[in-house]
Amino acid sequence: MKIIPRRRRLEGKTNYTKRRRLLEARKPRIIIRKTNRYIIIQYIESKLAQDSVKVNVNSNELLEKGWPAEKTGSLKSLGAAYLSGLLFGKKIKSLAPAVLDTGLIISTKGSRVYAALKGIVDSGYKIPHNTEVFPDEKRIKSLDFFDKVKANIMK
C-alpha cells in the first residue's frame, strides 16, 4: 500500500514529525520565520492542534523605533533580527515559558534565527537555549544606527 504524503509536506510548508513533537510538549511555542523582506516572530498557543497567535512582531515595526526609512532593505539583517527579538521579548515577559520552533528553517550556528533568539534572551525572557549557537556581537552590531534603535526599544 502506497502512502501519499500530506499536501503541506509536498508544498514544503510543514514538517509533521517536528510539529507533532512540539505539540506533544504541551507548551506554547515561539516561532521565528524569515521572509525575503522581514523577520517574523510569533508567540503561539495550541489547543487540539489549533494554533492561536497571542503576540506577533514583524521587523518592519523597527521603523517606528528609529530604523532609517532609507534602510528598509536591511530589515531582514542580523541586527534587525536581534532587535526584533528584543522587542518581542519585551512584549511577552509576562507570558508562560515557551519552546523555540524554527519550522523548516535549517539550523545554522550564527544565523538570523539565533540572532532573534539572542534578542529574546537578552530582554530577560526565559527560553531553553545553547549560547554556542548565537552569532558574534560584532556581526549583530554592525549597523551604525544599531545603538539608537536599541535605546528606543528599551525605553
Annotation keywords:
single chain, 155 residues, Nucleotidyltransferase, domain 5, 4-stranded mixed sheet, 6 helices, 33% helix
* Topology-level CATH name: Nucleotidyltransferase, domain 5
- Could you say which overall geometry the principal axes of the C-alpha atoms support? globular
Estimated helix fraction:
25-40%
Class by alpha and beta content:
alpha+beta
Question: How would you characterize this protein structure?
Answer:
With 155 residues, the protein is α+β, with helices and mostly antiparallel strands. The protein has one domain (13-154): Nucleotidyltransferase, domain 5 (2-Layer Sandwich), CATH 3.30.420.100. Helix content is 33%, strand content 17%. It has helices at 7-10, 16-24, 78-91, 112-122, 137-140, 146-154; strands spanning 29-34, 39-47, 50-58, 99-101. Strands 3-2-1-4 form a 4-stranded mixed beta sheet. A hairpin with a 2-residue loop joins strand 2 and strand 3. 27% of the residues are buried. The mean pLDDT is 90.
What's this entry about, in short?
With 155 residues, this protein is an alpha+beta fold.
List the helices and strands and how they pair.
Blueprint: H1 7-10, H2 16-24, E1 29-34, E2 39-47, E3 50-58, H3 78-91, E4 99-101, H4 112-122, H5 137-140, H6 146-154
Parallel strand pairs: 1-4
Antiparallel strand pairs: 1-2, 2-3
